[in-house]
Amino acid sequence: MTNLSAVRPVFFVSDRTGITAENLGHALLTQFSTIKFEHHSLPFINTEEKARIAANTINLKAQTSPCQPLVFSTLIDDACRRIIDDTQAHIIDFFDAFIKPLEIELRTQSSHAAGLSHGISNEHVYMSRIDAVNFSLKNDDGISTKEYKDADVILIGVSRSGKTPTCLYLAMQFGLRAANYPLTESDMANGRLPEALQPYKDKLFGLLINAERLHTIREMRKQNSGYASMAQCQKETRMIRSLFDLEKIPHIDSSHISVEEIATSIIQQMKIHRPPIY
Amino acid sequence: MTNLSAVRPVFFVSDRTGITAENLGHALLTQFSTIKFEHHSLPFINTEEKARIAANTINLKAQTSPCQPLVFSTLIDDACRRIIDDTQAHIIDFFDAFIKPLEIELRTQSSHAAGLSHGISNEHVYMSRIDAVNFSLKNDDGISTKEYKDADVILIGVSRSGKTPTCLYLAMQFGLRAANYPLTESDMANGRLPEALQPYKDKLFGLLINAERLHTIREMRKQNSGYASMAQCQKETRMIRSLFDLEKIPHIDSSHISVEEIATSIIQQMKIHRPPIY
């Protein structure tokens, strides 16, 4: 029945956003790099009627595809789960695998309540994330330094070293107030931190980037400009490395790592207290 | 050994960011709402030495806490896993539970390669996410409508209905180019869409919010202002609902749902093709 050379359909079935199901399934599937997968997301499966529609979609795919579909499910409602379990797919049931052992270990019945994750389960934590996003936008790119006293972290680096996306990720995912300040060539001319940053030295975290990568990114923005030239990128990356060393600013090289990895490293290196992922 | 009334320490152990481990563990723990958990994140456990340090941290907690710690692990390296398995904790090993059954089902050995998730595994997909974040910032709050032709979606709604965080989430998580345009009272005065938006009608998605919620959020921003007053919030929310109905704009009420839920609903309702979560 299963044809290994063909594309294998994968469904992520969830009663809410499906983000947990998809993260989890993706982390597993990346371990099978020789197989091609075709991803389908089926979020908000929170009634038996929607479960039956989802089951039809899965069965239709099973009948028209050379490969049996895989289903990653984070459904909690028992009636919905039974409907999906009855499809012609190979089911990987997240709750089935862990909830029973956890009930035994914790000596408590689980609530079997759907969608407690990735919703507004804690209004206060949720609003702090939205506030943090607004803070990051107001304190992006050195627009203002007036609120730096309220920042959890202030990222510094040359233009296009990844400061803005990292700040927004720190805010959105972790509710951290992350500001950022771009260091220009003239800011770095005397080899010291700009005066505006000196009172907040313990909140500063530096992003390095190598000259080749910076050149590529700047070229996408302003092609053939002095700003994007290799010579300018080499100059600025050299200057900022000296500055971080001299001022003893903790830093990371962002050239080949993702925003998620940069953000996690910052929290770890700066020992920032953050709330659990909600 | 286990004291049910005390706080139970939980460790999320990962060879990369730990985001998958924490999402997964959190989704499970929300099912046990009567138990208090204390979260600890141990990311970047990618050498045996770091695994031994992590194991010491876990064992120290086990010895000083009235409750045995829980460990959620997404470690892949066998040597690191053995070190964590030997701690005095109850281990929930994500890969152990699913990788073997998947290897059998897929008739393929898994690569056992660490950190393929939440890194830059696909440079093109990663850069499209960063580009999308930049697009959303440039096209936030109606700053400019020149690039609307390149947008995947344009969110419309009254001020403070959740447009900006939703756009940034769509960009960051899914690499979608999301613009947003705030509708003021005068924009809505004639009951039709502003002219600037009319050419892009098929890309528009509306965010509704109820007057009470809007009033609360605006009060946090500009206390005791006309802008934040209940009367103004009632007026604008009534006007925008009529506008969406008249112009047949697909929409959702954002009052009590999270950015993740709003974003997922938009993708579903607008049938937007998005890449898999990387």
CATH superfamily of the largest domain in chain A: P-loop containing nucleotide triphosphate hydrolases
This entry's quaternary arrangement is homodimer
What is the ordering of alpha helices and beta strands of chain A? EHEHEHEHHEHEEHHEH
Number of helical regions of chain A? 9
At CATH level 3, the topology of the largest domain in chain A is: Rossmann fold
- Structurally, how many domains make up the residues of chain A? 2
CATH class of the largest domain in chain A: Alpha Beta
Largest interface, counted by CB within 8 Å of the partner chain's CB = A-B, 76 and 76 residues
Give the CA-CA distance, first to last residue of chain A: 41 Å
Main sheet properties of chain A: 4 strands, parallel
Q: In angstroms, what is the radius of gyration of chain A?
A: 24 Å
Low-confidence stretches of chain A: none
Roughly what is the average pLDDT of chain A, rounded to an integer? 92
The chain-level structural class of chain A is alpha/beta
Could you please describe the fold and organization of this structure?
The structure is a homodimer of 278-residue chains. Chain A is α/β, with parallel strands linked by helices and 278 residues long. Chain A folds into 2 domains: 8-106, Rossmann fold (3-Layer(aba) Sandwich), CATH 3.40.50; 123-269, P-loop containing nucleotide triphosphate hydrolases (Rossmann fold, 3-Layer(aba) Sandwich), CATH 3.40.50. The first copy, chain A, has 9 helices and 8 strands. The first copy, chain A, has helices at 19-29, 48-64, 78-85, 94-106, 123-138, 163-174, 211-221, 230-247, 259-269; strands spanning 8-13, 37-42, 70-73, 90-93, 153-157, 178-182, 204-208, 251-253. In chain A, strand 3 (70-73), helix 3 and strand 4 (90-93) form a beta-alpha-beta unit. In chain A, helix 2 packs parallel to helix 3 (78-85) and helix 6 packs across helix 9. The longest helix of chain A is centred in the last third of the chain and has 18 residues, at 230-247. The two termini of chain A are 41 Å apart. The relative contact order of chain A is 0.10. The mean pLDDT of chain A is 92. At the A-B interface, helix 1, helix 4, helix 5, helix 6 and helix 9 of A face helix 1, helix 4, helix 5, helix 6 and helix 9 of B.
